[in-house]
Design goal:
Elements (H helix, E strand, L loop, with lengths): L1 H10 L5 H8 L4 H15 L4 H17 L3 H17 L3 H13 L5 H21 L3 H17 L3 H17 L3 H18 L2 H16 L9 H11 L3 H14 L3 H15 L2 H17 L3 H14 L4 H9 L7 H17 L3
Helix pairs in contact: 2-3, 3-4, 4-5, 5-6, 6-7, 7-8, 8-9, 9-10, 10-11, 11-12, 12-13, 13-14, 14-15, 15-16, 16-17, 16-18
Length: about 325
């Protein structure tokens, strides 16, 4: 709004911002909001910046008064006015607010928010305001994600990630790469999803105080869906390397090797799971895993010796049987 805007209004014979500030001082929020809508409408055609301010002020007052329908309506008005200023970040905020409070058409408004945040990112990048650009690209990506425009979401998460990598903002790097992976997953591109889940996990575990990421496990799941079982097994073993509960990673890798027909490797990693379970006093879990190993192992002598050592505690028999059924069901659900 500023001096120039006020001068233009005065020269045009229209009420100024300062006049309306005085006119609405002390009025109840709902009554004051109507005055600001009036101000915005007066300036709507020739001064979109004044219109934007008026609608935005009205929206805030209506929210204060608990008039949420009016708040949403005026948020849409200020978003449209902001596009004309242009003030793309404000427009993005407005469309996002409308999307959040709309029972219908939310995806369309999220898409409009995304488009405006993207423009704000481009503008900030051109002005060499890279941190601001990264913030705007990330906001655009999130809005596109909610609009189910996953390709555009990926594009802007990549824009954000490029800036984060250059500025060595490792938390943002990990966040963006994880989000890229999730959106590739939504698009059914399991190869790309797995690639970025690995990058996400490496970015997380590459930070000094972070010693685990579920990204390796999620990469394994994506590789399985892509039909790349060797890569899946490698990702699951990376998960086991970093996890406090490595048994799950060993089991997942073993299932991949079992499906590949690499029985020796499958047995090796099932047995690593067994050792982890026994160390953590999960004898009934180890027992069910040993039963799987016994079915597939060519030389069953070692497995049988281990089975003699394992005693399922009294009262865990039914839990053990239920776990066996669960393992079989999980194996089928993973497509293994």
């Amino acid at each position: 709004m500023g001096i120039l805007s006020g001068l233009k209004s005065a020269l045009a014979g229209k009420p100024t911002l300062e006049q309306y500030e005085r006119k609405t001082t002390g009025l109840p929020p709902k009554e004051a909001s109507q005055k600001w809508i009036e101000f915005a409408e007066i300036h709507k055609e020739d001064s979109p910046d004044n219109a934007m301010y008026g609608y935005r002020k009205a929206a805030a007052l209506l929210r204060q008064a608990g008039e949420m329908e009016g708040f949403t309506e005026q948020s849409l008005n200020y978003a449209k006015a902001a596009e004309r200023v242009p003030k793309y970040s404000v427009a993005g905020d407005g469309f996002r607010v409308v999307a959040e409070h709309s029972a219908e058409g939310a995806e369309e408004f999220y898409a409009q928010a995304g488009e405006n945040y993207h423009k704000a990112g481009e503008s900030a990048k051109a002005d060499r305001r890279t941190t601001r650009a990264g913030d705007m690209y990330a906001a655009a990506a999130e809005a596109f994600e909610k609009a189910k425009k996953y390709e555009q979401a990926i594009e802007d998460y990549m824009n954000s990630n490029e800036i984060a990598e250059r500025k060595k903002h490792l938390i943002r790097v990990a966040r963006d790469q994880g989000k890229i992976a999730e959106n590739y997953l939504r698009l059914g591109d399991f190869d790309k999803a797995a690639e970025y889940f690995v990058k996400h996990a490496e970015a997380e575990t590459g930070r000094g105080h972070v010693d685990y990421s579920d990204g390796f496990s999620r990469a394994g799941d994506a590789f399985v869906r892509a039909g790349k079982l060797n890569e899946a097994a490698e990702a699951y073993l990376k998960d086991a390397e970093f996890a406090n509960e490595p048994g799950y990673g060993y089991r997942n890798a073993a299932e991949c090797y079992q499906k590949l027909g690499e029985t020796e490797k499958a047995v090796e990693h099932y047995m690593k799971e067994v050792e982890d379970d026994l160390e953590k006093d999960r004898a009934f879990v180890a027992w069910e895993t040993l039963k799987i190993v016994h079915e597939i192992a060519e030389d069953k002598s070692e497995v049988e010796e281990k089975m003699k050592e394992v005693k399922v505690p009294s009262g865990f028999e039914r839990a053990s049987e239920a776990l066996g059924d669960t393992l079989k069901r999980e194996f089928e659900q993973k497509g293994l």
